[in-house]
Write a structure and sequence with these properties.
It contains one helix and nine strands, in the order E-E-E-E-E-H-E-E-E-E. It is mainly β. The chain is elongated.
Length: 142
């Protein structure tokens, strides 16, 4: 997440994750067998009773070409100061291949939660800002 482990109350904190297809290989009855898990959804629990879901894991502000604290599809605005435990659950679709038969779907979804991580939300201000940066983000000091 960015900023790294902290947020400013009322401004967007950006969350993102990367997951990729995972393939396991082996032999079954002397024939090659594979199972593949492909990420199909991301579910964020921001620790303050708010959740969000997306089909991709999001991206950093820089990768999206956005300024810091800009809203993204996976960002979150904390409404109050505090320490929050955030978790991400990635949902995977499974498929298998046996011999030379090609890939076949496995019914159901595999959900894998992340280890929780802590975000500290605080209120901040600066004496160098001449205006409300939420109203005029191009004002002096913003």
């Amino acid at each position: 997440m960015e900023p790294n482990g902290w947020a400013i109350v009322g401004l967007a904190a950006n969350f993102w994750a990367g997951a990729s297809a995972q393939i396991g290989e082996g032999l079954l009855l002397g024939e090659p067998a594979q199972v593949m898990f492909t990420p199909i959804g991301y579910r964020w629990d921001y620790g303050d009773g708010t959740t969000a879901a997306s089909v991709d894991g999001g991206a950093s502000w820089a990768a999206l070409g956005l300024a810091e604290f800009a809203k993204t599809p996976t960002s979150h605005d904390y409404a109050a100061r505090g320490s929050y435990s955030v978790t991400l659950t990635v949902d995977y679709r499974a498929e298998y291949s046996f011999g030379d038969q090609g890939w076949r779907p496995v019914e159901g979804i595999v959900s894998v939660p992340s280890a929780p991580f802590t975000v500290v939300a605080a209120t901040e201000s600066t004496v160098l800002v001449a205006e409300d940066c939420n109203v005029n983000p191009h004002g002096p000091g913003c």
